[in-house]
Design brief:
By secondary structure, this protein is an alpha/beta fold. It has two domains: about 220 residues, Acetylglutamate kinase-like (Carbamate kinase, 3-Layer(aba) Sandwich), CATH 3.40.1160; about 150 residues, VC0802-like. Helices cover about 45% and strands about 20% of the residues. The structure holds aspartic acid (ASP) and magnesium ion (MG). The site of aspartic acid has 13 residues, from helix 8.
């Protein structure tokens, strides 16, 4: 089971977490828990690292002090005995002092860009804090909780900030560290999001990476199922902050969930579905506030699939326009090979559309490259264009990629027609159908994206 930041944000939600673990541990032979940092903590730690970069000592120390009082307050409010409380306070102080040491180091380096290995070391503190608190809470209630650092389990490459697990090496660690704990009926509470290179430097798996830790561990400990606990009722048909009547999607295939994550649903880490799909492990997404509800189930179990539209997402992206006499030759190679590599991203960029005269090219930048991928790519592109103004006389424009997701859309011409018809008065730059037939993506001007999302969502609601 994985508990996300929103489900471990306060002592009240931690009490719900405790109830859930207590109940489920009596229903299952073995239970593995993976946790995120308390809600908002990762953002604060990232801010601290940025402040350290500009040598703002007061700024990062103030953040450390806020984190200290926030975690102390949680420890104070939870039902813990004095000895556990004392031990936790010492742990919190220790971890935060390591964080400050790292900030001092960053400040001493005074780089223009914050190097991501430093930032990972700072940001990992959030999960280390929460795992210790949750493990202590379990112990206090006769459950054999033990905090485990993901850096001791998940071996990754050195793409700091968005690292990828090395499954072979990680398997060995899981066999050595995690399986014996499970066999002894302990409940390991693993820090999500964090890994380490073979040399031992702390890495992170990209924002929302606790999902990814959980899916990798689910497969490696041979778990029956993976449950993600959050503060909404499941995967939703649209972003509920944007669409008031968005509703829970009860069932999805792996391919649908993967496209949902890839094209912008924030609830799932973009790379987390693949290990589950390859090993056919069902994934449930549930709300800690209403655990009796079934939530969403991701699996390939349902054989009686009929074509249906299920969700709509949108993500920001970039497009390049060439002047009348220029050319866009070389863009694919530049973005795919050079820029992505230099940014430590894998070259997953897709070229969504290109007009016959190749005057306009939309770059689909999937969420898997990390939360600030679009900004970083734009900066890098601008720098390259400034270096070679004659060869690259392009204008960068911002576009949105709106994606409708559903089952076997290629067998549902009427749903496709409805979707496209809904966009008849939009300035559509490009259109693509996903290879797994569960997504149709449309590139359009950013200002038109929320209206397009609303229109497609109306079709979803009506098509039931
Ligand atoms: N705490 C990390 C984040 O905020 C990882 C996670 O929550 O999954 O991105
Ligand atoms: Mg998440």
């Amino acid at each position: 089971m994985k508990f996300g930041g929103a489900s471990v944000g306060s002592s009240r939600s931690l009490a719900q977490v405790l109830d859930i673990i207590a109940r489920e541990s009596s229903r299952w032979d073995q239970l593995l828990v993976v946790v995120s940092a308390l809600d908002g903590v990762t953002d604060m730690l990232l801010d601290a690292a940025q402040l350290a970069r500009i040598d703002n000592q007061r700024g990062y120390r103030r953040i450390a002090a806020n984190l200290r009082s926030r975690h102390f307050a949680v420890v104070e409010e939870l039902p813990l005995d004095q000895a556990e409380r004392r031990a936790l306070r010492a742990d919190i102080d220790q971890l935060l002092s390591e964080m400050i040491d790292r900030c001092v180091l960053i400040a001493a380096n005074l780089n223009i860009e914050l190097s991501p290995d430093h930032s990972d070391a700072v940001v990992a503190v959030g999960e280390r804090l929460s795992a210790r608190i949750i493990a202590a809470l379990l112990r206090q209630h006769d459950l054999r909780g033990a905090a485990v650092d993901g850096a001791d389990l998940i071996v990754t490459d050195d793409v700091f900030g968005n690292a990828n697990p090395d499954l072979e090496r990680t398997t060995l660690r899981v066999e050595r560290v995690l399986k014996p704990m499970l066999q002894r009926d302990m409940i390991p509470v693993v820090t999500g999001f964090i890994g380490a290179t073979v040399q031992g430097a702390t890495t992170t798996l990209g924002r929302g990476g606790t999902d990814y830790t959980a899916s990798v561990l689910c497969v490696l400990v041979d778990a029956d199922e993976l449950w993600l606990w959050t503060d909404v009722d499941g995967l939703m048909s649209a972003d509920p902050r944007e669409i008031g009547d968005a509703r829970v999607i009860p069932e999805l295939s792996y391919a649908e969930a993967a496209d949902l994550a890839y094209f912008g649903a924030r609830l799932l880490h973009a790379r987390m579905i693949a290990p589950l799909a390859q090993n056919e492990r069902p994934l449930r997404i549930k709300n800690i506030a209403s655990p009796e509800q079934t939530g969403s189930l991701v699996s390939d179990a349902s054989r009686k699939r009929k074509p249906a539209l299920k969700a709509v997402t949108s993500v920001q992206s970039l497009a390049l326009r060439r002047p009348a006499s220029g050319s866009l030759a070389g863009v694919t190679r530049l973005v795919g090979n050079t820029l992505f590599k230099s940014l430590g991203m894998r070259s997953e960029v897709l070229i969504a559309s290109q007009s016959a005269s190749s005057s306009f090219l939309c770059l689909v930048i999937p969420t898997s490259i990390g939360i600030d991928g679009v900004d970083r790519l734009e900066r890098a592109l601008k720098a390259k264009m400034a270096q070679y103004p004659e060869k690259m006389p392009w204008a960068i424009e911002s576009v949105a990629l709106v994606t409708a997701i559903g089952t076997d859309l290629h067998r549902a011409p009427q749903l496709m027609a409805l979707t496209l018809d809904a966009l008849a008065d939009f300035e559509v730059y490009g259109l693509a159908m996903g290879a797994s037939h569960c997504s149709i993506s449309v590139a359009l001007p950013t200002e038109q994206s929320s209206k397009a999302v609303r229109r497609i969502h109306e079709i979803i609601l009506r098509s039931d």
